[in-house]
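__Record contents__

***
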Amino acid sequence: MEQIKTPFRGIADDIRGRALWYKQDWTDGIRSGIRILAPTTYIFFASALPVIAFGEQLSRDTDGSLSTVETLASTAMCGILHSIIGGQPLLILGVAEPTVIMYTYLYNFAKGRSDLGQELFLAWAGWVCVWTALMLFLLAIFNACDIINRFTRIAGEIFGMLITVLFIQEAIKGVVNEFRIPKGEDPNEEKYQFQWLYVNGLLSIIFSFGLLYTALKSRKARSWMHGTGSCRSFIADYGVPLMVVLWTALSFSVPSQVPSGVPRRLYTPLPWNSESVYHWTVIKDMGNVPPAYIFAALVPALMIAGLYFFDHSVASQMAQQKEFNLKKPSAYHHDILLLGFMTLLCGLLGLPPSNGVLPQAPMHTKSLATLKRQLIRKKMVKTAKECIKQKATNSEIFYNMQDVFIEMDSTHLTKSVGKELENLKEAVMKAENKEANGKENGTRTFDPEQLIDPYLPVRVNEQRVSNLLQSLLVAGAVFAIPLIKKIPTSVLAGYFAYMAIDSLPGNQFWERFLLLFITPQRQYKVKEGVHASYVEMVPFKSIACFTLFQLAYFMLCFGVTWIPIAGILFPLPFFILIGIRQYVLPKFFQPHHLRELDAAEYEEVIVARASHPLGLSAEDVESTYFGNTEVGMDLSDGEILDELTTSRGEVKRRTLSFWEEKHLQERY
């Protein structure tokens, strides 16, 4: 109730907090120079490819009323606006699968009514966006973001699993449709004869599974044994779009005797065609929508507003997790207010709205963390080596490195630096003790190249330039539609499957589901490797019951999406889940068990040979943690951050197991 009594408080606080940093948001990005292009292009491809795939899905589900042109235009426009006047510039916006689902339901409802039909579908959707925007305004004004923490892990995991299954469903549907004649096409055309339909279907299986396999392999390139670090990083960052280009190129290698149209390619009107230009004037038709339907639009608007509030806020949370050590304030209320304005603008222009997306938002932060870390590390190592040449003590070396860290950390918040570098200081001092023992041999064991990496705090280049540039690149992609149209639809089906499978690791609901199939006699194998903390803290019976509840609730949510018209209410079970989590589940599970199973953080336990990202032994862990530099490792910042984050972009909090911690304490 306190939130309702103080309207606009959250928005005012957000604007005041971010205004202090607005100038620096731009200067920090500009000072990065050409280095800012690496995270920019990385997040552009991560953002544009799903939007292209969703555009193809929308075109198929709305009989061409919406297409890739509209999804790209919405993503670009909202991204540019958010990068300039948004509160949290690290947040990436785009048209997402929930929006595609909602618009499909809206289209199916409209086309079945003579007084709406396909002609007034976008006009009616515009009214839905008007009501949605008003609700988002109210949520922002009355500080609703204060309660975003009520959406706990259980809701996020079920929602993530629902999107995963819908991606798989879309991939299967895409391949199956390759064996069928598209709706509205002439069955007498040569390419739709049985033999060529069959060839088209077989090619679709090759291209979709080929894209899926190669994309998954390239995604893990940083952990490959072969190749240089820079080569592996390039493949890991850009491998997926490169695989789309590769399989698109291979699709043109079919023999010339194959009729045109085999394999099928993405169909979308060009941006300058009348079908696309019409959307910009859809506001003229909104007055033709019958009043009854204008008020009926309140129902889907309520669902979309709740969905956007949840999705946008969670994406923003993931982009600014505390493990990223961000120094600038959040702006949840301001961003929800801006989301309302952008939803209204998209509705009036006949575009599907964009909102914060996962995993692109935390991927953006992670790419900027790598950039900032590389810059700081380079200068700290240089300073340490200069001190070594001058035969400075390790204490002097550390304090010189600390001065460099403070200088490079543009936020100038120095109070916490001493605490953040405490582990580095301890490691340097331990190295000094080892050197004292080795001086009689005339050797020096301290090597800053190896020592700094494990203890350097994560720093993120918090700025607006990369978000603006990637949004401008998306806008440029709108005019590259003639090239985008050459992508086979089966390749996009494979990309849907890739997004589904790539999102599973890190989803604890999925991991616990797999745990149910491990016999009690083999469960010790789980505890021998890196595993979630609940495996040690919660009895297996409680884990099984909690997972079965999630599974049943997931099936309910998935079942709702199959209801023809009422499926538009699919976000409703997630809102009900808030009450179930708060008032019902505590009656069936111990509080400390529930805290572990529905934890706010992704906590992992590391043991023995799994205690290092590369699976080193306890002695190697000791060397890494305490400064022994005899073991050299080709471990890039990107590989470290990849190991410490899930596919969803969630940062893992790693702790030693009880026995491993005891072992290290006994040795030191």
User: Anything to note?
Assistant: The two ends are 53 Å apart (CA to CA). The CA atoms of residues 207 and 250 lie 9 Å apart.
